[in-house]
Design goal:
single chain; 305 residues; mainly alpha; two-stranded antiparallel ribbon; 59% helix; globular
Length: 305
């Protein structure tokens, strides 16, 4: 896209910066990771417009020359006056992040978890997730308010392992509205996974719509599994869980092959979840079609807790 006559009007409007990660964790990769963290990038490729002073994302360009030009023109009006303070602030934050990378102590991580810079806070969070997950779980509700995907992923992962009922409402809020996210489907999936250990009967109504999502979206199977986990942990919720799972059997498809495969896998996941919740067994059909779907639903309806 860049060597385009259409983009010449923008060539002098922006400073072009290419950030590449090879995930080797060498020095250059760690620097590139800091940039990605600061901009909230968790999937690639991305083409963003960034204020050079504040390092805030002020535009997303799309992937065509016309959309790029429109976004660049709109973003130019948002750039703050030039000041060395912004660059100095980033350099200082990177030094603190590097300090944590060299000395990942719990004491230093506790101190930097309150840092003004999200990269420093993320580095601190990673240390505490390994060395003091109970502290992260206790503070999870507040930490989940940080508008950064990588940061919230990490908090959700800790909760998925350690639990934390106090974070339930915050997780449910992210499921309903993964706000300030550049990767909302993944953020929602992480929150759903955490609810498997943190959620309660109140969570089922929040989760239920996502059990009926696309078979091609792994969020759907993740939600089915989480609902079953809640039913297992909270026996009083089993009748509601049972009804939600019965409604989750997907409509069969005949083609294309990938759709058939994923639809059958989702149906198998719902079937296995019902076995888990009801403690009953039943065979899964060799072919998942409209007739076998009706038979499965009828068979499992008879096992209502």
């Amino acid at each position: 896209m860049l060597p385009s006559a259409q983009l010449k009007p923008a060539y002098e409007q922006v400073v072009w910066m290419y950030v590449y990660r090879d995930f080797s964790n060498n020095e250059s990769d760690v620097k590139a990771e800091r940039v990605s963290l600061r901009l909230g990038v968790t999937s690639w490729p991305q083409l963003l417009l960034v204020d050079p002073v504040t390092v805030d994302v002020i535009g997303s360009t799309g992937r065509t020359a016309p959309s790029f030009l429109r976004a660049a023109t709109a973003a130019a009006a948002k750039v703050k006056p030039k000041s060395p303070a912004g660059a100095d602030r980033i350099r200082a934050a990177d030094r603190r992040a590097a300090q944590l990378e060299k000395d990942p102590s719990t004491e230093l991580a506790r101190q930097f978890l309150e840092d003004e810079d999200v990269v420093v806070r993320y580095r601190a969070l990673r240390v505490l997730a390994q060395k003091s997950p109970e502290l992260v779980a206790r503070r999870a509700a507040a930490l989940l308010q940080t508008p950064n995907d990588s940061f919230r992923y990490e908090v959700c992962d800790v909760l998925a392992k350690s639990g934390g009922a106090d974070a339930r409402e915050s997780l449910e809020s992210l499921v309903k509205n993964p706000r300030n996210s550049k990767n909302p489907n993944v953020l929602r999936s992480r929150a759903v996974t955490a609810l498997a250990t943190c959620g309660g009967p109140e969570s089922i109504d929040v989760l239920a719509p996502f059990t009926r999502g696309s078979p091609l979206n792994m969020l759907t199977r993740t939600t089915v599994a989480t609902v079953a986990q809640i039913g297992t942990r909270h026996p009083e919720s089993k009748p509601r869980v049972h009804r939600v799972l019965l409604d989750a059997f997907p409509q069969p498809v005949k083609s294309p092959a990938v759709q058939v495969r994923y639809t059958t896998a989702l149906a198998q996941s719902v079937h296995d979840s019902l076995k888990q919740v009801t403690k009953k067994t039943a065979p899964f059909p060799r072919v998942y079609d409209a007739a076998s779907r009706r038979q499965l639903i009828e068979r499992w309806r008879q096992t209502e807790p």
